[in-house]
Amino acid sequence: MKGPDVHALSDHDLVERLKQARQEAFNLRFRHATGELENTAGLRGARHDVARLLTVARQRGIDLQKELR
């Protein structure tokens, strides 16, 4: 997900996409640890997506502790 796409999301969609990105990153890390993941570049992309989403959420002042429960 690119920067302009992230900035265009509503607050609710941003939080939902963050949940999905974190789950995807977890799944990729798990598959890498078990030896099932062949293309490890996806790990880096997933981490960058999470970072992008967190950056925009913090810029908007979204309380992530409350939203991610």
Any idea of the CATH class? Answer: Mainly Alpha
Task: Return the CATH topology.
Answer: Helix Hairpins
Structural class: mainly alpha
Average pLDDT for all residues = 91
Q: What fraction, in percent, of the residue positions are helical? A: over 70%
How many separate domains make up the residues?
1
| CATH architecture group name | Orthogonal Bundle
Question: Can you tell me the residue ranges where pLDDT is under 50 for at least 5 consecutive residues?
Answer: none
Overall 3D geometry?
A: elongated
What is the H/E order? HHHH
Major pleated sheet: none
Cα(first) to Cα(last) distance is 23 Å
Our estimate of the beta-strand percent is under 5%
Let me know the number of strands: 0
How many helices does DSSP assign? 4
- What Rg is obtained from the alpha carbons, in whole angstroms? 13 Å
